[in-house]
Amino acid sequence: MKINRDWKSQTVAVLVPLLLLMLIFLGWPLLRVSLGRLFSDFFYPYLMVSRKSADFLSDTTLLALSRHELAGQIELLRRENRRLALQAAGAAELLVENDRLRHLLKLSPAPGWHYLNAEVILRDPYSWNDRLKINCGSRDGAAPGDAVITADAEGVLSLVGVIEQTQSHVSDVITICNPALRLSAALPLSGTIGVLNESRRQAPAGRIGIGFLPVGGSYTVGEMLQTSGFENRVPGGIKIGNLSSVQAAGSLLSNEQYLSGTITPAVSFNDLRYVIVAGRSGKPAEMERP
How many separate domains does the chain show? Predict the structure, then answer.
């Protein structure tokens, strides 16, 4: 009998905790919801006392203020709102710049080329889109004639310009918007090649002139223009912009051999900050002579 009682007590001691665990496991969701409602409903009036007291004191203080004092408070709030809005706008600009910089740092150069990361450090307000200075010079590996490029959010490379002259740690860049820069541009869709800033007509603001377009070419407004690769220190296939307009061909009796047009540049020069200098890796191969 004693052995039977011990077995029963051991069984009860094992089963009772198991049953309690099962009840807790099965009833926990309902218990949690019930306890949450109980405590939230019970403590809500006490938690709202401090908030209502603060609101009451604030309303009482406002009622005690004069009209001029209220106007002063409103002006302070407006200034604070403007300050916070400027901070938010600055944070958004920093995020955009960080994204651009990440894309530039991840770019891999084509075979035979190397990339040097640089930042625009100086721009002349009178030639904002024509010239700029970057913090990359001869000691960093930059050389006159090297292409200066940038990339958009999708990683598409676009031509900014070429280095005009270098110093030890800085370089002067002449952009594609500068009328002094002559550069060949390929139109893959038309299968033709033109020359930047060689248009016989002055390009409107925000556009770039292009000339020496063959008369027999079939041009489409909006088609892409890219570097031809004919220049020794400018990689081919870099986007320049899109064709905006092209001069209408003359009559059959006209002796014109070339047309002019305009381009919308791919680079937004207003917010340009980070660029890449594309340089040749090693010495360029010499041309074979017959």
Answer: 1
Domain that holds residue 133: 110-280
The reply to whether 250 falls in a domain is yes
Sign of the dihedral defined by the CA atoms of residues 264, 181, 226, 254, in that order? positive
Residue (of 89, 84, 240) closest to 157 by Cα position? 240
Q: Give a yes or no: residue 17 inside a domain.
A: no
Which residue in the block uniquely carries the two structure tokens 């960080």?
A: 98
Give, for all 290 residues of the chain, the pLDDT tens digit.
Answer: 545 556 666 676 667 777 777 777 776 677 676 666 666 566 666 666 666 666 666 666 666 666 677 677 777 778 877 777 776 665 566 555 555 655 555 667 778 888 898 999 999 888 899 999 999 999 999 999 999 999 876 778 899 999 999 999 999 999 999 999 999 999 999 999 999 998 777 888 889 999 999 888 889 999 999 999 999 999 999 999 999 999 876 655 456 788 899 999 999 898 888 899 998 886 544 333 33
Query: Which residues are registered as beta bridge partners of 279?
Result: 114
Would residue 40 count as lying in a domain? no
What spatial distance separates the first Cα and last Cα of the chain, rounded to whole Å? Answer: 119
The CB-side HSE value for 184 (13 A sphere, CA atoms) comes to: 14
- DSSP state letter for 125: G
- Backbone Cα Rg of the chain: 36
Distance of CA 232 to the CA centre of its chain: 29
**Residue 206 sits in a domain of what CATH number?**
2.40.10.340
- The span from the CA of 10 to the CA of 5, in Å, is 9
Instruction: Judge residue 208's burial from the number of C-beta atoms within 10 Å of its C-beta, 0-12 exposed, 13-18 middle, 19 or more buried.
Output: buried
In a domain, 46, yes or no: no
